[in-house]
Specification:
The chain has one domain. It is built from three helices and no strands.
Length: 95
Amino acid sequence: MNTHNEVIDQDTTSLAEDVRSLVAATSHMAEEKTSEARKRLTAALDRGSKIIGEVEQTAAHGVRCADRALRENPYPTIISAFSIGVLLGHLSNRQ
């Protein structure tokens, strides 16, 4: 799973670099359509960066909350995990 996240992060970084390169390469073009496209690309890049930051913050908050809940209530967590394991084991043996 972590490898998948790393690949997505690398792809996103590569895409952002490509967009920045494209905007820089077309900066000398003064056509209205090119200028408008550069503005849209820059805005999309900014929105994408903002969304990625928000997702990272939300994920980090979720991890902290889960960690805190596990540390505050270890026995109910262990009992729940054991119960789910027993249920899944029972269901898999029925077939």
